[in-house]
UniProtKB/TrEMBL annotation:
It holds the Pfam family Glyco_hydro_1. GO terms for biological process: carbohydrate catabolic process. Keywords: Glycosidase, Hydrolase. PANTHER family: 6-PHOSPHO-BETA-GLUCOSIDASE ASCB-RELATED, GLYCOSYL HYDROLASE. Its EC number is 3.2.1.86. One of its GO terms (molecular function) is 6-phospho-beta-glucosidase activity. Belongs to the glycosyl hydrolase 1 family. It comes from Vibrio astriarenae. It comes from the Bacteria. This is 6-phospho-beta-glucosidase. The active site is at E374 (nucleophile).
């Protein structure tokens, strides 16, 4: 037990994404998205990184997103399970291509609107507040093939139309919005992050940062629109968080860590402050980047977000001698292994204090409320002889990170809520595996897509139920 108190209105819940949970990838008019083109297996990473110049479905490959855990047909039962845990908030995303199958249509697909209306009404029925991400790593493939995705300025118009449709169609059902999920991942995983494919010989940094500019303008534009449609709407940005520690106190290592943190925070600097940071000019010069900024763009960027949301799984380590031989392949954001920290089965370091550090860093920098919208432990789960999953390792991980959240709150950091990742088992974004499980609820599906999809409560389900009921005071 602990006598520390979270705010009375603290939003406890969990998070999923459409492309990792819904399945039904072509149901009721939905179009193909970027994630639908990323297979499980050896070809996954080259496609995610944009290292192939053309992407097409291959009958010899297995695509986990096509069926996922079939949340599309099971959402009522799944939301009922979340309500049983006591969820106050449920983070999920809208698949852009359910509303606009190609992305460039003039009018939306009504069947897509109807589906999400039913999902949000189901949340409302259980007293759960939806927290909705507009673009969670899924760009309609037609926009990639015809326009080159976010390298093309026309995507600002298409995204604006899509977002406006969402704000109008779901007004009264949704008030918490995120524009782009982990927007900084565009720099590290360009195809999965933003639908970018590269041509031989082109300056990839130029492509990535120009695409980033288009996304930043689009994000600011739809933030303004959300406020115009309903002043009660709250719009946040979303960062793949985690500070870079210097590998040593050598000044060169400290400076490298500062540069890596700046690279990570670049997008949020713009979305939270409303202008490009001073260091961007040198970064662009060093990388040979010349942004095409249109008249009015810089004024649009002044429409800043209401809060800063972020994921936190692990801290990172940086050295002036970082290279492909000494950085971990466990994550697309490269880091030197920290010898002072344990790691998960997938090589992600476990660092609860790093969460407190990250929260203090973000609030010191932006002075906006924070929302921790992803955190959790990917692990192998096994049923025991009684048919139970005793995932004490997950409970221990979450317990220590909740303690760190409370310590940051005590430090003076305002935190709106906590939505641990993959509250129901889903397809891993990094590896495409089902065996890398995060959930409080087990889903019977394996890495090859086989299984009954039956849902089973894990030990952590009942533990988290108790945490929410006690507003974070009972962590035993």
């Amino acid at each position: 037990m602990t006598d520390s108190q979270f705010p009375a209105n603290f939003l406890w819940g969990g998070a999923i994404a459409a492309n990792q949970a819904e399945g039904a990838h072509l149901a009721e008019g939905k179009g193909l998205t970027t994630v639908d083109m990323i297979p499980h297996g050896a070809n996954r990473m080259p496609i995610k990184l944009g290292l192939v110049d053309k992407v097409a479905l291959d009958d010899n490959e297995f695509y986990p997103s096509h069926d996922a855990i079939d949340f599309y047909h099971n959402y009522k039962d799944d939301i009922a399970l979340l309500a049983e845990m006591g969820f106050k908030v449920f983070r999920l995303s809208i698949a852009w291509s359910r509303l606009y199958p190609n992305g460039d249509e003039e009018e939306p697909n009504q069947q897509g609107i109807d589906f999400y209306t039913k999902v949000f009404e189901e949340c409302q029925k259980h007293g759960i507040e939806p927290l909705v991400t507009l673009c969670h790593f899924d760009v309609p493939m037609h926009l990639v093939e015809k326009y080159g995705s976010w390298r093309n300025r026309k995507l600002i118009t298409f995204f604006e139309r899509y977002a406006r449709t969402c704000f109008n169609a779901f007004d009264g059902l949704v008030k918490y919005w995120l524009t782009f999920n982990e927007i900084n991942i565009l720099l590290h995983s360009p195809f999965s992050g933003a639908g970018l494919l590269f041509q031989p010989g082109e300056n990839r940094d130029q492509v990535k940062y120009q695409a980033a500019h288009h996304e930043l303008v689009a994000s600011a534009l739809v933030t303004r629109i959300a406020h115009e449609i309903n002043p009660q709407n709250k719009v946040g940005c979303m960062l793949a968080g985690g500070n870079f520690y210097p590998y040593s106190c050598k000044p060169e290592d400290v400076f490298t860590a500062m540069e890596k943190d700046r690279e990570n925070l670049f997008f949020i600097d713009v979305q939270s402050r409303g202008y490009y940071p001073s260091y961007a000019k040198k970064v662009f010069k060093d990388k040979g980047v010349e942004l095409d900024i249109h008249d009015g763009d810089l004024d649009i960027l002044k429409n800043t977000v209401d809060f800063v949301s972020f994921s936190y799984y692990a801290s990172r380590c940086a050295s002036a001698e970082m290279n492909s031989g000494n950085t971990s392949e466990a994550n697309v954001v490269k880091s030197i292994k920290n010898p002072h920290l344990p790691a998960s089965d997938w090589g992600w370091v476990i660092d609860p204090l790093g969460l407190r550090i990250t929260m203090n860093t973000l609030y010191d920098r932006y002075q906006k409320p924070l929302f921790l919208v992803e955190n959790g432990l990917g692990a192998m789960d096994e049923f025991d002889s009684e048919g139970q999953i005793n995932d004490d390792y997950r409970i221990n991980y979450l317990r220590e990170h909740i303690k760190a959240m409370k310590q940051a709150i005590d430090d003076g950091v305002p935190l709106l809520g906590f939505t641990p990742w993959g509250c129901i088992d889903l397809v891993s974004a990094s590896t495409g595996e089902m065996s890398k499980r995060y959930g409080f609820i087990h889903v019977d599906r394996n890495d090859k897509g086989h299984g009954t999809l039956a849902r089973t409560r894990k030990k952590s389900f009942y533990w988290y139920q108790k945490v929410i009921a006690s507003n974070g005071t009972d962590l035993d």
